[in-house]
Specification:
alpha/beta; FAD/NAD(P)-binding domain; D-Amino Acid Oxidase, Chain A, domain 2; 2 domains; eight-stranded mixed sheet; 11 helices
Length: 417
C-alpha cells in the first residue's frame, strides 16, 4: 500500500474502506539472525536500515508494550544539528540529512517541518560561545546564522526583550532545524521495516539474555525463548536494566524529562526557541498547542511521570522568556525516561560479549538522532565495524577517559547533561 494524493482522494470518496494495516502482527519464530530489543524509534529505524541498506530479512524487533509507546512518543519533537564537538557534530549532521529525505524514502508523512531553531544568548560570554559553535557548524557543512538583538526581534517579536535579569542579546539561528511528528516517525519506520520482511513483535518482554562461552545465543521472553546470532539492545531509559541481564553494569543513569502542551492557539511561534538562561524550549504544533519543556527532574527514576518542582521550574522559565505564555492553559504533561551518560553523548558500540551490541546514552538528543542512530547501528550490526559518523561513540571512553565528548562542558555527572 503506497500513499499518494490520488489514493487519499479516492479513499475519501469511497468511505476509506480500502486502507489496510500498516504492519503485520506475527508470532515470534524460534530463531532469527538478529534480534533487536526495543520497538521505539531507534530500534525500528535500525531494523529498517538493516533490511534496506544491508539486505537482511531474518530480523525481529521485540517490544514489551506497543510500538512507539516509549520515548519516541514522549518528547518535544525537536530536530536539529547544532552541535559543536567533533564526533557529535558529524553524527547529528548525518542524521539531519537523513531526516530531510525521510518522508520520500518511507512514503509516509512524518510531518518534518524545517521551521528553524533559535538558541538565545543573554550575555557576552554566551554570545562568544555560540559564535564558536556556529563556526563549528558551518565548518561541518551545516547552517548557522548569528543574530543580534534586532535579528531575533524580527523572527520572534513576542519575547520579553526588556527583561532586566535576562536581556536578550541575540541568538544562534539554525534554519534547517525544526520539528517532526514523533509517533509518525515510529510508524513510518515500522511500516518500512515490515514491508521488507522484518517481524515486529509487540507485547513481548525480554526477561533474559542467553550467553554461552562469552557469546550471545538468544533471549528469553514472555512469549518463549528466541535464538539469535546477534542481539542489539536499544531500550533508552531501560538500558541498564536490560544490560544487567547479560551481567553488564552500564555507566548510565535513568532520569525523567517532563514535557507539556497547551490548548490549541492561533499561530504565534513559527520557529523553535530555546532560552539560554533557563533551559526552556518551545515550539507550536500543527494543531496549535504550545509544546515545551526544560530540565530533567534531577533524580534517578524509572517512572514515566515527574514531580511538581520541575513543573514550576519550567513554567517560571517560560514566563521569564515570554510572559504571554501565562495566558495559555496547559492541557497535559508527560515524562520520558532518559538514558543519561556521564558526558552527555551516546554509545553505539559492541560489548565485551560476542554478538551483543549496545545503543544508549542519548540524554536529550534521542528524537533528533532517530534516523542517524538507526542507520549507524544497522551498519555496526551488519558489518561489525562502526559507521564513520558514529566512530567516536565508544563505550570504553568512560573507562579510559579517552574520547570523552562533553558537549556542554559541565563535567562527568549524568544529571547535568
Amino acid at each position: 500500500m503506497r500513499f499518494s494524493g490520488l489514493r487519499v482522494l479516492k479513499e475519501g470518496l469511497t468511505g476509506n474502506r480500502g486502507w489496510t494495516a500498516h504492519w503485520r502482527d506475527p508470532e515470534p519464530k524460534p530463531a532469527y539472525d538478529i534480534v533487536i530489543i526495543g520497538g521505539g524509534g531507534h530500534g525500528l529505524a535500525t531494523a529498517y536500515y538493516l533490511a534496506r541498506e544491508h539486505g537482511l530479512r531474518n530480523i525481529a524487533v521485540l517490544e514489551k508494550g506497543y510500538l512507539g509507546g516509549g520515548n519516541v512518543g514522549r518528547n518535544t519533537t525537536i530536530v536539529r544539528a547544532n552541535y559543536g564537538l567533533p564526533g557529535n557534530s558529524e553524527f547529528y549532521s548525518h542524521s539531519l540529512k537523513l531526516w530531510e529525505g525521510l518522508e520520500q524514502e518511507l512514503n509516509f508523512n512524518v510531518m518534518h517541518s524545517q521551521r528553524g531553531v533559535i538558541n538565545l544568548f543573554h550575555s557576552d560570554g554566551q554570545r562568544d560561545a555560540y559564535a564558536r559553535r556556529g563556526n563549528a557548524m558551518v565548518n561541518q557543512g551545516d547552517d548557522a546564522i548569528l543574530l543580534d538583538r534586532d535579528g531575533v526581534r524580527r523572527l520572534a517579536p513576542y519575547l520579553d526583550f526588556d527583561n532586566g535579569r535576562f536581556p536578550v542579546y541575540g541568538g544562534l539561528y539554525h534554519p534547517r532545524g525544526g520539528t517532526a511528528r514523533h509517533d509518525a516517525v515510529a510508524w513510518g519506520y515500522a511500516r518500512g521495516a515490515d514491508q521488507r520482511g522484518v517481524d515486529l513483535i509487540q507485547n513481548c518482554e525480554v526477561t533474559g539474555i542467553d550467553i554461552q562461552n562469552g557469546k550471545v545465543t538468544g533471549v528469553q521472553t514472555s512469549r518463549g525463548a528466541i535464538r539469535a546470532g546477534k542481539v542489539g539492545i536499544v531500550v533508552a531509559g531501560r538500558s541498564s536494566q536490560v544490560a544487567a541481564m547479560a551481567g553488564m553494569r552500564l555507566p548510565i543513569e535513568s532520569h525523567v524529562l517532563q514535557a507539556f502542551v497547551t490548548e490549541g492557539l492561533k499561530p504565534v511561534i513559527d520557529t523553535v526557541v530555546t532560552f539560554g538562561m533557563g533551559h526552556f524550549y518551545i515550539s507550536q504544533s500543527d494543531k496549535g498547542g504550545l509544546v515545551f519543556g526544560g530540565d530533567i527532574d534531577m533524580y534517578a527514576s524509572y517512572a514515566a511521570r515527574g514531580n511538581l518542582p520541575a513543573v514550576e521550574h519550567v513554567m517560571e522559565a517560560g514566563m521569564a522568556l515570554m510572559p504571554m505564555i501565562g495566558k495559555a492553559r496547559v492541557l497535559r504533561s508527560w515524562g520520558g525516561i532518559m538514558d543519561m551518560s556521564p558526558d552527555g553523548s551516546p554509545v553505539i558500540d559492541r560489548t565485551g560479549i560476542e554478538g551483543l551490541y549496545l545503543n544508549c546514552g542519548w540524554c536529550y538528543g534521542g528524537f533528533k538522532a532517530v534516523p542517524g542512530s538507526g542507520h549507524c547501528f544497522a551498519h555496526l550490526l551488519a558489518t561489525g565495524r562502526p559507521h564513520a559518523a558514529a566512530a567516536q561513540f565508544r563505550l570504553d571512553r568512560f573507562r579510559t577517559g579517552a574520547g570523552i565528548m562533553d558537549e556542554e562542558g559541565t563535567g562527568a555527572q549524568h544529571n547535568l547533561h
